[in-house]
């Protein structure tokens, strides 16, 4: 089992930011309201996620580290209507197979602490813990030297981690997130459910005045979010965030549709800041394309893209420019 977990770790945990993503998504799925992430170095040294979610029952703690053990889907039908961020049951066993993991959790009663190193159970015992889960991942990739060679500079790995937290925070304005690097606070969101506030915390509070609220809908899609004025742009399309049914996704066609909404108003090689939420029938979405779950298949994509482009065009034409 250790070997197959290491193989799937190759797909699920490519780099420190993928670990952060999987752990924070678990905290979100556990209905946390407060999620604190602490990272040391490039994340290879230590990643620690503390949440105040539902926790794991003592009897289920070992199972959570078993391959394809998920508490989130129960049958084939669920797989076609995934409403949690996780569903493959791969993250914890994968991470634990390539790191030294300590997890402390409680559902409110007696807690449990488990330690797994390179896929080997080191110990499991009752522990005092408040409701929620604290997971600490040390020495990531210590037993997979080839993977270590693929790491970029600490600054690059850290910026990928920041990017992950930014997008998860943008998708979940009701959750208060914090990211601490070494002892330096990189991000803190209020968790008051105000998307504009989250955009402010991430991109700088003064810029929020330059963000325009947008919304639109048709029979299949409901859209809402914020787009920047054409003068507030960035040098990469990285500042366009697409959130589909609460999951941030990477989708070139949809990002292009956002840019197209600006027509000729953008300067060359400048891109808007935008956060677009899409709500649609989960039946029409397939997130099970890749283990990272950020690539999804969307039915009626052309109609969605058209709706996005016209929504932004209309909003900008109502703005006195
Ligand atoms: P998945 O998220 O796909 O179900 P994971 O390997 O990420 O698989 O997690 C396995 C299981 O461990 C989850 O289904 C969940 O029951 C439990 N779990 C993991 N992290 C947490 C957490 N922070 N709070 C509560 N339960 C958790
Ligand atoms: Mg998960």
TrEMBL record:
Top-rank taxon, per record: Bacteria
Domain DNA mismatch repair protein S5: from-to ranges: 199-317
Function statement: This protein is involved in the repair of mismatches in DNA. It is required for dam-dependent methyl-directed DNA mismatch repair. May act as a 'molecular matchmaker', a protein that promotes the formation of a stable complex between two or more DNA-binding proteins in an ATP-dependent manner without itself being part of a final effector complex.
Family: Belongs to the DNA mismatch repair MutL/HexB family.
Protein name: DNA mismatch repair protein MutL
Species of origin: Acetilactobacillus jinshanensis
Gene (UniProt): mutL
Range covered out of full length: 9 to 329 of 650
């Amino acid at each position: 089992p250790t070997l197959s977990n290491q193989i799937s770790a190759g797909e699920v945990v490519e780099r420190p930011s993928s670990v952060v993503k999987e752990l924070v998504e678990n905290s979100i799925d556990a209905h946390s309201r407060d999620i604190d992430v602490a990272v040391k170095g490039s994340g290879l040294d230590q990643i620690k996620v503390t949440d105040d979610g539902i926790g794991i029952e003592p009897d289920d703690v070992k199972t959570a580290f078993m391959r394809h053990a998920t508490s989130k889907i129960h049958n084939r039908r669920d797989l076609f209507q995934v409403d949690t961020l996780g569903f493959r049951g791969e993250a914890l066993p994968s991470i634990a197979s390539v790191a030294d993991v300590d997890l402390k959790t409680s559902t409110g009663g007696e807690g449990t602490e488990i330690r797994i190193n390179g896929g080997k159970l080191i110990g499991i015992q009752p522990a005092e813990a408040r409701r929620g889960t604290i997971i600490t991942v040390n020495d990531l990739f210590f037993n997979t030297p080839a993977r270590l060679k693929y790491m970029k500079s600490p600054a690059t790995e850290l910026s990928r981690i920041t990017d992950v937290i930014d997008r998860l925070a943008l998708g979940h304005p009701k959750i208060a997130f914090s990211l601490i690097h070494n002892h330096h606070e990189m991000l803190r969101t209020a968790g008051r459910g105000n998307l504009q506030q989250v955009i402010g915390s991430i991109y700088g509070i003064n810029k929020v005045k330059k963000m325009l609220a947008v919304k639109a809908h048709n029979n299949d899609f409901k859209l809402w979010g914020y787009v920047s004025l054409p003068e507030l742009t960035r040098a990469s399309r990285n500042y366009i965030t697409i959130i589909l049914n609460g999951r941030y996704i990477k989708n070139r066609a949809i990002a292009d549709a956002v840019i197209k909404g600006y027509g000729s108003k953008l300067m060359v090689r400048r891109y808007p800041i935008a956060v677009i939420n899409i709500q649609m029938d989960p039946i029409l979405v397939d997130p099970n394309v890749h283990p990272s779950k950020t690539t999804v298949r969307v039915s009626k994509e052309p109609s969605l893209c058209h709706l996005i482009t016209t929504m932004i065009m209309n909003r900008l034409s109502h703005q006195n420019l």
